[in-house]
Design a protein that fits this description.
By secondary structure, this protein is of the alpha/beta class. Among the domains are: about 20-135; about 140-205 and about 390-450 and about 485-565, von Willebrand factor, type A domain (Rossmann fold). The chain has helices spanning about 10-15, 20-65, 70-85, 120, 165-180, 205, 235-245, 330-335, 375-385, 395-405, 490-510, 530-535, 550-565; strands at about 90-95, 100, 105-110, 130-135, 140-150, 160, 160-165, 190-195, 295-300, 305-310, 350, 355, 370, 435-445, 450, 460, 515-520, 545. The strands form six sheets. It has a six-stranded mixed sheet, sandwiched between helices. Strands 1, 2, 3 and 4 form a four-stranded antiparallel sheet that branches. Strand 9 (about 295-300) and strand 10 form a beta hairpin. Helix 2 runs antiparallel to helix 3 and helix 5 runs parallel beside helix 13 (about 550-565). The N and C termini lie far apart (about 90 Å).
Length: about 575
């Protein structure tokens, strides 16, 4: 018997399973929707919690910066208003602060209800993110800070509508104000200021008879460019200054000192009676041969014609007789003769590239100010700084270090006034009883010792003398063994860079923290070698700053002062 196919209705009921798929989807879609909704709600809550933690951290730091006399109710009010300003008042809960003393420690806890969009679906109607932050107001720390500030001629250049030096003056003044108004600094904190150019000056009235200066001409560096023994009874350079001041009131000793011999010039020790060369020699720029009648003076001898840039006494080239003859002398003999200072002939005051001629040639800065807490004195010196002269970063840095050193010329060995504290055995600044020593070095250039190839000396006079001194010595005594026989500006720079680098290394070894700032504007940039010198001198990469504008320079000082006096979260 033949089989008949099933009717269509029967086939649809027994074989069509499309309805099963729909039922299955309806069954599993609800959990999927709940999971998705929960993910959205908790993602929103996580973002809210992150924002709440940041606000709590910032508020805690703000609370710890308030004066220690601030009352607990006032602190709670400040916490509440600050958190509301950051998070809004709706559903925000700020717990009462937990405050302990000595040092003051503040714990801030806050909560804020997070909106749930799928609460009815997930069964979670409230998510309550919380945040907790704790900070401490440490006991004020005591610092000794040396501001070593470039005062060279290039600081007169413009940057952002003001000179570079004006920007430095603003930044340094702001720094002093910060130190003496911020509670992180104790009242015992002191600051020194060292303006530098080609040399560094101390106050000549204060230190004229200092026992650490070579008062009697005993150092081997004392008579490099003046005949000694001499026929004029000069016992030291100070005797020559006295004679010259008799004809020009501005020709007394200006307070500048020459570089010590190596390696004393990269160390911070004091002079010792057993080493006469360890005493500081007053900078004395000799009269260079010429008639003192113009900026650029010529002098002819059997070796040809030479040129001088610092001729301030008329060398009588027509005389071969008398008490101070010159006619038959060579350049070096005319340079070092002592008799011309007894009765200076036609003494003339002029200048070379703005630097006044005379015995203080190259001594162009205001005298340094040793450690003090006298804000008026600090600000007065900052305001009196002027841009003039070449760049000697090495001497600037060393004198900054000496103002902080308990072993050098400002120590209690020589005077109890402004004497630096002892070095610490740790560089940590967390101990309130520790004296933290800091050098902030700012320069807009690179080490520069100007050459003069048109004279036997080979250079202009400098804190290290000449490339070749009149008595036949050179600058070698003041230079590392790897930088001998400097003969031009590049080799001189290399030698000064080497001295600077060694000085920085030695200062860091006694736990002095060093910050460096290179003021490198586009029209007068610091080259890569100069930037590397400053970067390596700093105690860490984060303590080197490169400022390309006046605003950058001021900002760099602000970052440094904030870093020194920073408050940090304890957890």
């Amino acid at each position: 018997m033949a089989r008949h196919p099933d009717p269509p209705a029967r086939r649809s009921l027994t074989r069509d399973r499309r309805g099963n798929v729909a039922i299955l989807f309806a069954f599993i879609s609800m959990p999927m929707l709940m999971l998705s909704g929960a993910a959205v709600d908790y993602g929103f809550a996580t973002r809210l919690e992150t924002k709440l933690q940041a606000a709590t951290d910032a508020t805690a730091l703000l609370l710890c910066q308030t004066p220690l006399t601030t009352t607990t109710p006032d602190l709670n009010t400040l916490a509440q208003t600050t958190m509301v300003g950051a998070m809004g008042a709706t559903d925000l809960s700020v717990d009462p602060l937990v405050i302990t003393s000595n040092p003051r420690q503040i714990t801030l806890t806050a909560h804020k209800v997070s909106t749930t969009f799928f609460g009815k679906l997930t069964g979670t109607t409230r998510i309550n993110p919380g945040a907790k932050s704790q900070c401490a107001t440490p006991l004020p720390k005591t610092f000794e800070i040396a501001l070593v500030l470039d005062n060279t001629g290039s600081m007169a250049e413009s940057s952002g509508g003001q000179s570079k030096l004006q920007a430095v003056q603003t930044a340094a003044t702001n720094f002093v104000n910060y130190v003496y108004t911020n509670s992180a600094f104790s009242s015992a904190t002191r600051v020194s200021i060292v303006p530098f150019a080609g040399a560094v000056a101390v106050n000549p009235a204060t230190y004229r008879y200092a026992s650490w200066i070579d008062q009697s001409g005993l150092s081997s560096l004392h008579w490099t460019n003046v005949t000694f023994p001499n026929t004029s009874n000069f016992t030291s350079r100070f005797d020559i200054f006295a004679k010259l001041q008799g004809v020009n009131a501005n020709w007394g000793w200006g307070g500048c000192l020459e570089s010590l011999p190596y390696p004393l010039n990269v160390q911070d020790g004091a002079p010792t009676s057993g080493n006469k060369d360890s005493y500081f020699v007053p900078l004395f720029a000799p009269d260079e041969p010429g008639d003192a009648s113009s900026t650029y003076r010529s002098f002819s001898d059997s070796n040809g014609t030479s040129y001088s840039y610092n001729s301030y006494i008329d060398d009588d080239t027509s005389s071969s007789t008398g008490s101070c003859p010159i006619k038959t002398l060579t350049y070096n003999l005319a340079l070092k003769r002592d008799c011309k200072y007894v009765s200076p002939r036609n003494a003339t005051s002029s200048s070379y590239i703005g630097i006044p001629n005379g015995p203080n040639f190259g001594c162009t800065t205001q005298p340094l100010l040793p450690l003090t807490s006298d804000q008026n004195a600090l600000k007065t010196l900052i305001g009196n700084m002027a841009p003039l002269g070449s760049t000697n970063i090495h001497e600037g840095f060393m004198w900054g270090w000496r103002t902080l050193s308990p072993k050098s010329v400002f120590s209690s060995t020589y005077s109890s006034l402004n004497a630096p504290a002892a070095y610490t055995t740790s560089s940590s600044t967390t101990n309130a009883t520790t004296i933290n020593k800091i050098i902030i070095l700012m320069t807009d250039g690179t080490n520069s010792w100007t050459a003069n190839p048109n004279a036997p000396t080979g250079s202009l006079y400098f804190a290290a003398g000449y490339f070749q001194n009149a008595n036949g010595t050179s600058a070698n005594a003041r230079m590392p063994s790897t930088n001998q026989n400097v003969s031009d500006s590049p080799s001189a720079r290399s030698a000064l860079d080497a001295l600077t680098a060694q000085a920085c290394t030695n200062a860091k070894a006694v736990n002095i923290s060093i910050y460096t700032i290179g003021f490198s504007i586009p029209s007068d940039p610091i080259d890569s070698a100069g930037q590397s010198l400053l970067m390596n001198c700093a105690s860490s990469p984060g303590q080197f700053f490169l400022a390309n504008t006046a605003d950058d320079l001021i900002g760099a000082f602000q970052k440094i002062q904030a870093s020194i006096g920073a408050l940090r979260l304890t957890q």
